[in-house]
TrEMBL record:
Alphabetized UniProt keyword annotations: Membrane, Transmembrane, Transmembrane helix
Organism listed in the record: Mucilaginibacter pankratovii
Domain of life where this protein originates: Bacteria
Domain Fatty acid desaturase stretches: 103-192
Species lineage: Bacteria, Pseudomonadati, Bacteroidota, Sphingobacteriia, Sphingobacteriales
Keyword Protease appears in the UniProt entry: no
Name this protein carries in UniProt: Fatty acid desaturase
Transmembrane segments: 12-31, 43-61, 99-119, 125-143
The keyword DNA-binding is annotated on this UniProt entry: no
Length: 205
C-alpha cells in the first residue's frame, strides 16, 4: 500500500487483478460460512462469516445469511433476492441495490478517511476501492448472471460452465460450477470441482 504508483508499470495492473481475486476469495469464504463449511464448530464458522463479510464491504452477516438462503429456497423466482428479469446492467444495478445499505457506505467512507492518514490516497483507490468494485462484478457475472440468466430445464434453475478447473478457479473460485453448488451446498468452494457433472440442461454447451 506504500508502493509508488506508476501507470506505465504493468505490475500495477497485475496487483489490481490480484487484489480483486483475493477480495472475491474473501466473499467466497463468507459464503461458505453461510453454508457451515468453513469450520465444524458453528461458533467458529459464524465468527469467520462475521469477519469476512465485514472486511469485504461492511456487510452484516445475519442479514446476508438470510438473503442468501432465500436465494437457495426461491431460486429464479420473484422472491429470489439475487434474480432480476432484465439485461446485464439492470440486473447488476438491482443486485447492488439489494445488498448495499447506506450504513455500509458510511462505514467504508470513515475507514477510507482513517486509512488516508497512513496510506497514500492513490494507493487506497487503486489497491482497495477499485479491486473491491471489480470483485462485485466478478462475483455477479460468474456467480449469479451467467448461471441464472435465461430459462433452465432443471430443478435448481441454474447452469454450470464447461469443466476447465484452471479457468474455473481464477474466474470465481469454482462458482462457475453453479448447478453443482445448488445441488450440494454443503460442499466448500474448493471441492466443487469434484462434484458430479450436472445433467443435460444444467451445463453450458
Amino acid at each position: 500500500m506504500q508502493w509508488q504508483v506508476n501507470f506505465a508499470n504493468p505490475f500495477l495492473y497485475l496487483f489490481i487483478l490480484v487484489q480483486m481475486h483475493l477480495y472475491t476469495g474473501l466473499f467466497i469464504t463468507a459464503h461458505d460460512a453461510m453454508h457451515g463449511t468453513v469450520a465444524p464448530n458453528p461458533k467458529l464458522n459464524n465468527l469467520v462469516g462475521y469477519i469476512c463479510t465485514f472486511l469485504y464491504a461492511s456487510f452484516w452477516y445475519p442479514q446476508l445469511y438470510t438473503k442468501h438462503h432465500k436465494h437457495h429456497s426461491h431460486v429464479h423466482t420473484h422472491e429470489d433476492p439475487d434474480y432480476h428479469n432484465g439485461n446485464f446492467f439492470a440486473w447488476y444495478v438491482q443486485f447492488i441495490r439489494n445488498y448495499l445499505s447506506i450504513w455500509q457506505i458510511v462505514v467504508m467512507a470513515i475507514l477510507f478517511n482513517v486509512f488516508k492518514m497512513w496510506v497514500p490516497q492513490p494507493n487506497l483507490i487503486l489497491f482497495w476501492v477499485v479491486p473491491s468494485l471489480l470483485s462485485t462484478l466478478q462475483l455477479f457475472y460468474f456467480g449469479t448472471y451467467l448461471p441464472h440468466k435465461g430459462e433452465h430445464d432443471n430443478k435448481h434453475q441454474s447452469r454450470s460452465l464447461q469443466r476447465n478447473h484452471f479457468l474455473a478457479f481464477f474466474s470465481c473460485y469454482f462458482f462457475g460450477y453453479h448447478y453443482e453448488h445448488h445441488d450440494a451446498p454443503w460442499l466448500p468452494w474448493w471441492k466443487l470441482w469434484q462434484a458430479p457433472r450436472p445433467p443435460e440442461g444444467g451445463a453450458f454447451d
